[in-house]
From TrEMBL:
This is FabD/lysophospholipase-like protein. CDD domains: Bbox1 (cd19757), Pat17_PNPLA8_PNPLA9_like (cd07199). Gene3D superfamilies: Cytosolic phospholipase A2 catalytic domain. It comes from Trichodelitschia bisporula. A motif (GXSXG) lies at residues 760-764. The keyword Repressor does not apply. InterPro entries: Acyl_Trfase/lysoPLipase, P-loop_NTPase, PNPLA_dom, Znf_RING, Znf_RING_CS. PANTHER family: CALCIUM-INDEPENDENT PHOSPHOLIPASE A2-GAMMA. GO terms for molecular function: calcium-independent phospholipase A2 activity; zinc ion binding. One of its GO terms (biological process) is lipid catabolic process. Residues 655-700 form the RING-type domain.
Length: 1155
């Protein structure tokens, strides 16, 4: 065996197998082991008599010794610390300002780990966190390293992914004394659960609790000069991003800030020891499924228990509605060999330690309770009861000293099994409360907690408030009802419970009647006849609200419990300050209880009946039925708003006008309404598909609506026109050149007016926003995009140094300066909400084109669509969502930054208002044509069957130098680097031309193929990402040299299609079916036989999309001039009317022009 151990007895390299004797420190083959008594006695002369000689696998010994006996921090250890920097999750450091105030840094360890664990086509995973805490030098990092490296027989899933190296902590040495090894909190992956199942286990290694302000060894390890060395060792492995995602100032740790509570003498809130012992526990306790508390000296177990209890006590009351308390394992490390054999069994060790703990004098227990702020006059619990106050379960495990290799190996596997079992129990508990955190939301919750505890250490973090922010778009009436109630809690949670109950119920009942009137329009029906249609979703809504959002009814004096039913049992009764008032189960309210759902249904049914009776007594000659119900509904709304401020009801997920739909239209007052409410409240303009809004139903006074507002809609029978722009960077100039050539073939009208929806990815999405959201003229958009590329794609100076530049780029994870690019985006695009009200004075072209961009979540598992519009949630292959609060909406430039955050080029984009991070959309949709088609069907379902009028897909150029299918993606694939891509995307179809081909092959065969045009110019050479010099060369090329004749012919065809699509049939009259007979010759003797015939008559007018309003007057003039030019020289312009399925000639309607 090459490199294997040689028998120390016979020195025969061929002897096999060879075992290691831990007691003697020698390798012996089978023959020498049996006859090696003299050698055993010689080696054992200085060892205790109790030493047992055991055969040990020498490979296990070598593996364990490399972890347990590291060298001092010299030479290669520096490289280990350099690599370990990439695993840092969060931690504190001093700011660069003059005061040197401490700040909290967050790093990319979590997304780096998760992005490699999940595939975009897999079921979402729910990560589970195991935190390792304890004193400095207790061996936390050693234990984590043993769990990661000392694996059982390799599972097949790990063998399949050997290209990924599982990083382990850098282990300290006794030579460094009490100096902490690693700083802050590092995150590692458990190899045994990383690829299997849906619950990957993550290990958090926390800095030692009692190191004081001594700088950890990690902080002293240089990194700049060691990048090349460490990079060579892992050249074929994934190099994660090192840069911090965000820096938060610790508001309570400034020198001029009062401390959050009384501090011991000589302690300051800015001290590292204070932050490690107070901030870190709040975060880790709140999010951990299991806590492993490592203690080195097993003989002083009382000290370890006291510290374990105190660590939990510092955190218990600093979160409310926590779904489950963590389980805790007390790991007694480096236990001597003379303990009884039963102590190596977890159950026996736990029971024996608790028996000893219960013998501790009550005075010492009282002293501990007093130090924790507990009432010492109440019944003194046992030590076990005190532990259970802070943890779900308690267990004890022991690790032996390092020379007992077999026993140590066995205990490592037992600890891993115990951790997995406890994680499963925690997962089950959270699943029962419906509060599982999936891989893409876990980090969002953590970021909200980081924000919270960076601002204050005293007030508790509330899980329910964050869950409301992340609540998905409602899918039915019941979800909208829950959303209304949740907003009521936020707006006025102190309202009397009876008034809350009645106000909510009346709004729901009135909305039911309104919806029924919308559907029937005439006649009356009893509430019993149609209430059952809503009852199922209402029952679910009531139960969901009572379980997830309504607090417990327990109170003690002035203190009220704030925990909801779903997460109450973990801590009992807690007040708003997080203090545990009293133990106990959830106490239901006499109004809001899941058992009272039938009573609530009866209350609603009675309210519906009362509203109907009032409507019947109202005269009908002045208003129609729906309008009359709106008047009655507005009275209910006004009564509702007496208790709740209108400003608190601005939802982007529920229309609070009717509770029946997702709101789509931002009003000038700030509220958002659905299309039905807008059309029923507003004034229909006679000349076009437009509504004039002069009031809002969510205001009690008309003066609250600042000014009249025009909302336009696509005509019902008009076709849809789509523009799709490929992913690109500097080659976006090619797309702009193509669009300029197209605009030159059209009337003198802005290009945006000819499209209903523009969809783009990365640079293509930035151009789409420039044209659609910012309404820039094509010329201005080209100029702005050129400046963006020139100023935004900035390399670091060191980038130009051969070899070193590439190593630094690989080390940092991105090629360009992200902040510089974001600054250039702000200069180019608007700093206004992506979806929100835009006053006409801020817009120049009066275009109503919608814009959508492709992006991905930070783990690379889900595709995301960001849009300037809102719609209901549909069954799509991507996520479409807007935040609940309009104040949390992405700005236009931020959406462009999110879509452009391509791995390898830029850092992930972190939206600080929502704590969501995004990757570039090219991971899924380098050609967003599938998004364009899908979104058009969601927005205009009536046109889904007929298909779009025009679909234009514009690429960013393909290279003449490459003929392989992947040649086009060279503009960004070289920067991706397959090792920097999230798992599952290395083989995903990223070639835009291949995506287009696949799309066309799967298209409905009945659709006319000439509606779909793809333009992707052939370039002499595709520039590298950020090559602004080559961009200028492309910009200087005339369109006739950039486009071949076939592509120019395609543009001319698109131009004619776009002009024709400006006209549509407006048919305000219902279709008329008539039945008559037709006589046809039949048979040998030519007999006339009568056949029935069904005739459809459809009347209407051919209209232009441009209306007669003042804003569109220049467009109409330009269109007339264009058509007149086509009629010059004897030409004609006409409309063709054909009957589908008939072979008869089309009927021509001549287009007459009048000057």
């Amino acid at each position: 065996m090459d490199g294997g151990p040689v028998c120390d007895g016979c020195c025969d390299a061929s002897s096999s197998p060879v075992s290691y004797c831990s007691a003697c420190g020698v390798h012996l083959c089978e023959k020498c082991w049996e006859g090696g008594a003299i050698l055993h006695r010689k080696e054992n002369a200085t060892r205790p008599a109790a030493v047992i000689h055991q055969k040990t696998d020498p490979h296990k010994v070598r593996l364990l010794d490399t972890i347990l006996r590291p060298s001092n921090y010299q030479g290669p250890e520096v490289n280990q610390h350099a690599a370990n920097k990439h695993t840092k999750w969060f931690g504190m450091c001093c700011s660069t300002d003059e005061d040197r105030n401490p700040v909290l840094e967050e790093f990319d360890a979590y997304p780096n780990i998760i992005s490699r664990s999940v595939r975009y086509d897999e079921t979402p995973k729910c990560p589970q966190l195991v935190s390792f805490v304890g004193g400095t030098g207790a061996g936390k990092s050693t234990v984590v390293g043993l769990l990661i490296k000392a694996l059982p027989p390799t599972p097949p899933t790990i063998l399949k992914h050997q290209d990924f190296e599982f990083t382990a902590p850098v282990v300290g040495t006794h030579a460094n004394g009490n100096v902490p090894t690693s700083a802050d909190v590092h995150l590692y992956a458990d190899p045994t659960t990383y690829y299997d199942g849906t619950t990957p286990v993550l290990y958090a290694d926390c800095e030692g609790l009692d190191a004081g302000d001594i700088a950890p060894m990690e902080n002293a390890a240089p990194i700049r000069n060691e990048v090349a060395k460490s990079d060579r060792n892992v050249a074929t492995h994934h190099i994660p991003r090192q840069m911090n995602s965000r820096v938060r100032r610790l508001e309570w740790a400034g020198t001029d800030t009062p401390p959050p509570h009384e501090l011991p003498a000589g302690v300051q809130t800015s001290d590292r020891a204070f932050i490690v012992e107070n901030l870190y526990p709040r975060l880790l306790y709140t999010f951990s499924d299991v806590v492993v508390f490592v203690s080195e000296n097993s003989r002083t177990f009382q000290h370890a228990l006291w510290r374990l209890i105190a660590w939990g006590a510092k955190s218990l009351e600093h979160s409310v509605n926590q779904p489950a308390l963590p389980h805790v394992i007390l790991l007694l490390n480096r236990t001597s060999r003379d303990v009884p054999v039963t102590e190596w069994d977890v159950d026996s060790a736990t029971q024996n330690l608790l028996i000893q703990a219960n013998t501790i004098p009550s005075k010492k227990v009282k002293d501990l309770m007093a130090s924790l702020g507990l009432d010492v006059n109440e019944h003194i619990p046992t030590v076990e009861g005190l532990i259970k106050r802070y943890y779900s379960t308690f267990s004890v495990m022991r690790f032996p000293q390092g020379d007992q290799h077999n026993l140590l190996w066995e205990q490592i596997q037992n600890l891993r099994t115990r951790i997995h079992d406890l994680c499963k129990r925690s997962h089950k508990a959270k699943l029962s409360t419906n509060m599982l955190l999936q891989s893409d939301t876990f980090n969002i919750y953590l970021r909200y907690a980081l924000d919270h505890f960076a601002a204050t250490l005293d007030s508790p973090f509330n899980f329910v408030k964050v869950s409301l922010k992340l609540h998905p778009t409602p899918g039915n009436f019941g979800d909208h009802v829950v959303r209304l109630a949740a907003n009521m809690c936020d707006s006025n949670g102190n309202l009397d419970r009876r008034l809350f109950y009645e106000s909510w119920s009346k709004m729901v009942a009135s909305s039911i009647v309104l919806d029924h009137m919308r559907k029937t329009k005439q006649g009356w029906a009893s509430g019993d006849d149609y209430f059952s249609h809503y009852q199922g979703s209402l029952n679910q809504a009531f139960k969901a609200f009572c379980t997830k959002f309504w607090p417990c009814a327990f109170s003690k004096g002035d203190e009220k419990c704030v925990n909801v039913k779903a997460s109450h049992d973990s801590k009992g009764h807690q007040n708003a300050d997080g203090k545990v008032i009293q133990a106990g189960s959830y106490i239901p309210d006499r109004h809001f209880d899941t058992d009272l759902v039938e009573k609530w249904g009866s209350f609603l049914r009675s309210a519906v009946t009362r509203f109907e009776e009032c409507l019947r007594e109202t005269p009908t000659y002045e208003t129609g039925m729906p309008r009359r119900q709106w008047i009655a509904h507005l009275e209910i709304v006004n009564d509702f708003l007496r208790y709740f401020a209108p400003e608190g009801f601005r939802s982007q997920k529920t229309c609070f006008g009717c509770l029946m739909a997702v709101p789509e239209h931002h009003l000038a007052c700030g509220h958002v309404l659905c299309t039905r409410c807008v059309k029923e409240i507003g004034e229909q303009l006679p000349t076009w598909q437009a509504i004039k809004m002069t009031e809002c139903p969510l205001h009690t006074v008309p003066e609250a609506f600042p000014s009249a507002q025009i909302i336009r809609f696509n005509p019902p029978l008009a076709g849809v026109r789509l523009l799709s722009l490929d992913s690109t960077n500097v080659c976006g100039i090619v797309q702009l050149k193509v669009l300029q050539a197209l605009e030159g073939l059209l009337p003198n009208i802005p290009l945006q007016a000819f499209f209903d929806l523009i969809v783009g990815t990365s640079g293509g999405g930035t151009i789409a926003l420039g044209l659609g959201a910012s309404e820039l003229a094509l010329k201005d958009c080209t100029s702005g995009f050129t400046d963006l590329c020139r100023n935004g794609f900035a390399h670091r100076k060191i980038h130009y140094i051969p070899i070193v530049g590439k190593l630094i780029t690989r080390h940092r994870g991105h090629k360009f300066k992200t902040r510089r690019y974001h600054s250039a985006l702000k200069d180019f695009l608007q700093d206004s909400p992506l979806f929100g009200y835009k006053s006409r004075e801020h817009l120049t072209l009066s275009s109503d084109v919608k814009v959508a961009l492709a992006a991905a979540n930070e783990t690379g598992q889900k595709a995301i669509v960001l849009a300037t519009y809102n719609r209901a949630e549909m069954d799509t292959a991507y996520v479409f969502d807007h935040p609940e609060n309009h104040k949390d909406e992405l700005n236009v430039w931020e959406a462009a930054a999110a879509s452009s955050a391509t791995p390898g080029l830029f850092k992930p984009f972190l939206h600080e208002k929502t704590n969501r991070a995004y990757l570039g959309g090219a991971l899924f949709h380098s050609n967003p044509i599938n998004i364009a088609i899908s979104e058009s069907k969601c927005l205009w379902p009536d046109s889904a069957l007929a298909g779009p009028d025009v679909v234009l897909s514009v690429g960013a150029g393909r290279s003449q130098k490459r003929s392989e299918p992947d040649s086009r993606i060279s503009t960004y694939s070289d920067s991706f680097g397959s090792t920097n891509m999230p798992k599952g995307h290395r083989t995903s179809p990223r070639d835009p031309d291949m995506i287009w081909k696949t799309f066309m092959d799967g298209r409905n065969a009945s659709e006319t193929s000439d509606r779909y045009i793809r333009i992707n110019p052939l370039l002499p050479e595709v520039p590298e990402a950020g090559d602004s010099g080559r961009m200028r060369d492309l910009q200087a090329l005339p369109a006739k040299y950039l486009l071949c004749e076939k592509e120019l012919a395609g543009l001319r065809k698109v131009a004619l299609h776009l002009v024709a699509s400006l006209f549509y049939l407006d048919s305000p009259y219902p279709a008329i079916f008539t039945k008559d007979s037709v006589y046809r010759r039949r048979g040998k003797y030519s007999t006339f036989i009568s056949f029935p015939r069904l005739t459809l008559t459809l009347k209407g007018n051919i209209k232009c999309r441009f209306s007669e309003i003042e804003e569109h007057t220049p467009h109409i003039v330009a269109l007339g001039a264009f058509l007149q030019s086509k009629c010059n020289g004897g030409g004609r312009v006409w409309f063709e009317v054909t009957e589908q399925g008939e072979e008869s000639l089309p009927h021509q309607v001549i287009f007459h022009l009048f000057s």
